[in-house]
């Protein structure tokens, strides 16, 4: 039996942070970072059956072209992903009354739609990136036993290439779901490795008033390649989503609209249009269109 202090429920029986009960979610779930982006997706739904919000976690579930889909905001960073995926898994794979894991487990399909900056001049603003791998620079997933799902060869190559300071923790590399990759893939999408940082400023190489540990890290990442896969972009959620999903038996895929190019110093003139196009594409693929 899982103790009350470990799996915290609200008085209405919903999971603590997400404020959801099992019947509130579909098995196909879209993650966004910004709570205001939830309705940018659900505005296309034929109907919405459920809506709730607690803190930065906003959830709406409805029907799009006959497909039941949940859209949820996760907020920013790997720490929030730790909350969201563990609580979603509890909703489908733990009996919340008996507090026992279920004998028959359910796999969720989780697709992140986000915005990101590209590290390469040849991946322009307003393009789409599919993350074949998430490369975690944040160290969150190292709290779990990840050897069975992580790619040690990529990790070793990255540590060597960047002369990584191991005091920051060993990076981890996790593959996307091949099932979702086949459903969503398109000739329009760039593919590669998405690096996931634990912060927005120093961890992503931005310098305001504080010096950073490795001023050359971004250029090192720009030059990194493993078996033809290069680091395409840098953001704050993908590797954590891939890692926890793989450990818990869920399918996960991360898609990003590129709104900034760090190599060329450019920013999209209409980032909302790029995101809307990625939303429409993903919804239609999920609905089988």
Automatic annotation (TrEMBL):
It catalyses: uridine + phosphate = alpha-D-ribose 1-phosphate + uracil. Residues 29-266 form the Nucleoside phosphorylase domain. Its EC number is 2.4.2.3. InterPro entries: Nucleoside_phosphorylase_d (IPR000845), Nucleoside_phosphorylase_sf (IPR035994). Pfam families: PNP_UDP_1. It comes from the Bacteria. This is Uridine phosphorylase. It comes from Flavobacterium psychroterrae.
């Amino acid at each position: 039996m899982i103790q009350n202090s470990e799996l915290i429920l609200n008085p209405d029986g919903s999971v603590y942070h997400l404020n959801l009960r099992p019947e509130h979610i579909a098995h196909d779930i879209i993650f966004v970072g910004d709570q205001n982006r939830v309705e940018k997706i659900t505005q296309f739904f034929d109907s919405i059956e459920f809506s709730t919000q607690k803190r930065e976690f906003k959830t709406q579930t409805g029907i799009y072209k006959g497909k039941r889909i949940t859209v949820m905001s996760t907020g920013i960073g790997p720490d929030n992903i730790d909350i969201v995926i563990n609580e979603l898994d509890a909703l489908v794979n733990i009996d919340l009354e008996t507090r026992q894991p279920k004998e028959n487990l359910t796999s969720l399909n989780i697709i992140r739609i986000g915005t990101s900056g590209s590290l390469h001049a040849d991946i322009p603003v307003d393009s789409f990136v599919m993350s074949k791998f998430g490369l975690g620079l944040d160290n969150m997933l190292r709290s779990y036993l990840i050897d069975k799902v992580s790619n040690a060869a990529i990790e070793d190559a990255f540590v060597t290439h960047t002369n990584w300071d191991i005091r920051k923790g060993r990076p981890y590399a996790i593959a996307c779901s091949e099932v979702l990759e086949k459903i969503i893939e398109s000739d329009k999408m760039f593919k590669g490795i998405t690096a996931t940082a634990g912060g927005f400023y120093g961890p992503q190489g931005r310098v305001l008033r504080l010096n950073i540990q490795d001023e050359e890290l971004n250029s090192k990442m720009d030059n990194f390649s493993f078996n033809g896969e290069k680091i395409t972009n840098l953001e704050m959620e993908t590797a954590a989503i891939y890692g926890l999903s793989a450990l818990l038996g869920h399918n996960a895929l991360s898609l990003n609209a590129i709104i900034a190019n760090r190599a060329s110093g450019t920013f999209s003139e209409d980032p909302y249009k790029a995101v809307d196009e990625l939303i429409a594409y993903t919804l239609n693929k999920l609905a089988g269109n």
